[in-house]
């Protein structure tokens, strides 16, 4: 095994490929982080307060969430990349392990995001689509923009994160699925999609009511997860795994209300796109010839930086930049413009030889770039045009020029301090065999950590083998648990036993909450609706709190009271109820979670009738429960 890993790492570390996929992975990961931070900000009182809006335990939580949001934004745009991903990694660890997110509001993908964040520490995510790459260019403004070649990275930076973060997760999850009857029946995707608590607003009954299709889908998922880690890197099978994986996780995102999990998994799939596809896509999107030529003053530092910036954001390559001193004389459209005037502004010439200058040049640049077309239209608006023109003139007329000959020595470029540059590129170039050998040991260590998790919980726990009956095996079990705790916290390596038989077996009752308005009428709280669906935005980790912790096959009275209190206090404040005197009704209805396929099971569960099983009264912001009904009664 070690020899195989060593050989593969040696081969991939020397293979240079486009960095496009890495850049897109960084952007998508950052977007998933940012949307989750916005979600936490909206629900911060529900998640972090012992009693929402009444007993506020973390008054500074919003500040740290805003700080985290700024970090996620830096990751998206690629600014101060190494610092941003380091802070993000630490924030995931702190929030997941030291707040209520860990116990009561598990998002189902927190550990996955932690593991992905760990690998981002060592990935060259700043090479493409990043502000850091632009900062590097701007540090040497007198170098022509064509001097900078397209960045490349080691192919290992694509394969290693996929192997660990996706491959380990898939095969561990598949081990647990083998022990679940509904998965063995081919209904692993069907059963959650028939439960009102788990479905999104999209009605997928057309697919759910097709038994052969559901079984094909269920078995496809199991085969896909079992074989992914072994064959995803095979050239002939890579596209197959790419398309199946995108389809499966897109289906989760659209059909279930655990969309953050689906989005987080999808963020990894740019790393599976064949490298040749990026080259072909670039050829398709890139203009065959520039549609606008911009003339600038080569001896002006501000002009050079402007050109470098414009070229950096010209992703479709529709612009071309010429040195006014060298090219203007050969351009008939500029023949009537004196040289001195030519050096005071940016001039542009389109394909029809129409000349633009000053602010009009920037408007044309925005229009021709394509994705900045709305900005160009806004700059044309009366009032905005005059203000922008005045600002442009103030900058252009006060800029400084320097005397710089062809031998002018450029300043030293910014030093890239990323861990990828220091540890991977530098070290692998100097001592390639030593680098491959040490990285192989790291890969083996990660494999051992995953095997420890999968064997401990995927086999011994599922087979009900009690390791604590013998002193020797008890010591091994304790060591395994301690090792698992470390790998879980820092690497996100944990059991992935989601939606299995031990979750749905006996899941035959669900709860909802209504309230009495000022007119004495009963209204549904914007939480669970009449069908039993959790309404947006109560998805993701809020859905996990209610559907996986509060309401379970065996409902714990103390636990469900706690979450009824939190939900009524939070949404009561949100909809303007006075918790000095407010009454809520607790509704219950029966559903069914069969292991065998049943036609139209989703609508049958939704059509089941609600009964009132108790009330909750808030008086002077103190809650009182009246729940005489035995919620565990079958």
Account of the protein in words:
The chain has about 625 residues and is an alpha+beta fold. The chain folds into 4 domains: about 200 residues, no CATH class; about 120 residues; about 110 residues, Glutaredoxin; about 120 residues, no CATH class. Helices cover about 55% and strands about 10% of the residues. It has 27 helices and 11 strands. A 5-stranded antiparallel β-sheet has the order 8-7-9-10-11, with helices on one face. It has a 4-stranded mixed β-sheet with strand order 4-3-5-6. It has a two-stranded antiparallel sheet with strand order 1-2. β3, α15 and β4 form a beta-alpha-beta unit. The longest helix has 29 residues. It is globular and about 90 Å long. The two termini are about 50 Å apart.
Number of continuous helical runs = 27
How many structurally independent domains?
4
Mind describing the biggest β-sheet?
5 strands, antiparallel
For the biggest β-sheet, the strand order reads: 8-7-9-10-11
What Rg is obtained from the alpha carbons, in whole angstroms? 30 Å
Average pLDDT for all residues: 89
- Count of DSSP E strands? 11
Distance N to C terminus: 52 Å
């Amino acid at each position: 095994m070690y020899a195989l890993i060593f050989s593969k790492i040696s081969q991939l570390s020397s293979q240079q490929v486009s960095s496009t996929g890495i850049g897109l992975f960084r952007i998508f990961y950052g977007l998933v982080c940012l949307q989750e931070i916005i979600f936490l900000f909206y629900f911060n009182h529900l998640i972090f307060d012992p009693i929402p809006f009444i007993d506020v335990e973390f008054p500074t939580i919003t500040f740290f969430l805003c700080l985290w949001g700024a970090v996620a934004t830096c990751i998206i745009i690629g600014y101060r990349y190494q610092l941003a991903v380091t802070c993000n990694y630490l924030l995931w660890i702190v929030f997941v392990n030291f707040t209520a997110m860990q116990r009561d509001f598990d998002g189902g993908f927190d550990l996955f995001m932690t593991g992905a964040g760990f690998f981002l520490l060592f990935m060259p995510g700043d090479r493409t689509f990043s502000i850091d790459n632009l900062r590097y260019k701007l540090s040497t403004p007198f170098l022509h923009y064509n001097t900078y070649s397209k960045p490349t990275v080691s192919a290992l930076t694509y394969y290693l994160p996929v192997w660990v973060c996706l491959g380990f997760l898939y095969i561990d999850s598949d081990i647990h699925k083998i022990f679940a009857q509904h998965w063995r029946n081919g209904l692993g995707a069907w059963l959650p999609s028939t439960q009102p608590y788990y479905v999104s607003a999209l009605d997928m009954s057309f697919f759910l009511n097709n038994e052969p299709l559901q079984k094909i889908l269920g078995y496809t998922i199991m085969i896909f997860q079992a074989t992914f880690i072994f064959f995803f890197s095979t050239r002939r099978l890579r596209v197959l795994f790419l398309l199946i994986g995108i389809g499966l996780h897109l289906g989760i995102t659209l059909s279930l209300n655990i969309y953050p999990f689906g989005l987080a998994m999808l963020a990894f799939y740019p790393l599976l796109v064949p490298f040749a596809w990026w080259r072909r896509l670039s050829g398709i999107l890139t203009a065959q010839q520039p549609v606008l030529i911009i003339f600038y003053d080569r001896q002006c530092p501000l002009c050079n930086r402007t050109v470098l910036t414009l070229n950096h954001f010209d992703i479709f390559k529709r612009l071309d930049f010429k040195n006014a001193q060298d090219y203007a004389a050969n351009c008939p459209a500029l023949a009537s413009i004196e040289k001195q005037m030519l050096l005071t502004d940016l001039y542009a010439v389109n394909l029809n030889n129409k000349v633009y200058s000053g602010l009009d040049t920037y408007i044309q640049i925005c229009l021709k770039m394509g994705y900045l077309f709305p900005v160009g239209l806004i700059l044309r608006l009366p009032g905005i045009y005059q203000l922008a023109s005045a600002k442009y003139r103030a900058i252009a007329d006060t800029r400084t020029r320097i005397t710089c000959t062809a031998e002018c020595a450029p300043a030293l470029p910014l030093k890239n301090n990323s861990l990828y540059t220091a540890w991977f590129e530098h070290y692998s170039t100097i001592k390639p065999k030593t680098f491959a050998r040490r990285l192989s040991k790291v890969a083996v260590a990660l494999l051992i950590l995953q095997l420890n998790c999968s064997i401990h919980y995927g086999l011994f726990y599922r087979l009900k083998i009690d390791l604590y009956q013998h002193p020797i095996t008890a010591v091994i079990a304790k060591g395994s648990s301690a090792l698992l705790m470390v790998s879980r916290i820092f690497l996100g390596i944990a059991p992935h036993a989601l939606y299995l038989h031990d979750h749905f077996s006996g899941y035959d009752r669900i709860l909802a909450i209504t309230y009495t308005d000022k007119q004495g009428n009963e209204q549904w709280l914007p939480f669970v609706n009449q069908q039993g669906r959790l309404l947006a935005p109560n998805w993701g980790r809020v859905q996990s709190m209610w559907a996986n912790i509060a309401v379970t096959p065996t409902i714990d009275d103390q636990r469900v009271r706690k979450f009824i209190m939190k939900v009524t206090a939070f949404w009561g404040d949100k909809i303007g109820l006075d918790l000095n005197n407010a009454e809520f009704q607790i509704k219950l209805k029966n559903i069914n979670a069969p292991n065998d396929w049943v036609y139209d099971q989703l609508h049958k569960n939704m059509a089941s009738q609600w009964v009132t099983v108790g009330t909750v009264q808030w008086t002077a912001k103190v809650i009182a429960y009246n729940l005489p009904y035995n919620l565990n009664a079958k």
